[in-house]
What does this fold into?
Amino acid sequence: RKEVEQDPGPFNVPEGATVAFNCTYSNSASQSFFWYRQDCRKEPKLLMSVYSSGNEDGRFTAQLNRASQYISLLIRDSKLSDSATYLCVVNLVTRGSYIPTFGRGTSLIVHP
Amino acid sequence: SQTIHQWPATLVQPVGSPLSLECTVEGTSNPNLYWYRQAAGRGLQLLFYSVGIGQISSEVPQNLSASRPQDRQFILSSKKLLLSDSGFYLCAWGQGVGYTFGSGTRLTVV
It folds into this structure.
């Protein structure tokens, strides 16, 4: 089983739609979690951290379910500019250091 | 503010040639530094990480090596490139509350 798994998609949605991505992780000792956004041929950029209580940033909501070992990202009122690959990141402390493990990403295409 | 610089942006190298990619960080001290590779259509694979000068941990056995000669400098090297070394190489720094990436080097081995 892969350490961090995501549905690669693509998710093809119209503008204004609500779309949700899930990401599962295998190591229950994982410490912290993030969602990153990667545009084509660019470096990943931090979208938001994921907190146990859930957190929201504008149209984006992230949630963590430790019992089931998954995190989710919800995007409301999708914009064309939301088209990108969304990467799930799980932090594990190994030998005293944070080791971030990335999922392969979920591709989102928002069309007019 | 913290910034991370990575160069060159693109590189085309023949099989068997050496490689040296450099990454430098500004605005922070003693950062954790990471090298990732992203092959076409694939996820990010952690290659090396470093928690301090001269301290390198390798995540996967391969044709590459890394060095950290200064606190804010991280170098990825190879003595002889293979075709399979082609990919998008990304340097990142972080302290567990999020990671910032350099703009990456797109390496094509021909």
Summary: DSSP finds no helices and eleven strands in chain A. Chain A has a mean pLDDT of 93. Chain A touches chain B at residues 31-32, 34, 41-46, 49, 87, 89, 91, 95-105 (CB under 8 Å). The radius of gyration of chain A is 14 Å.
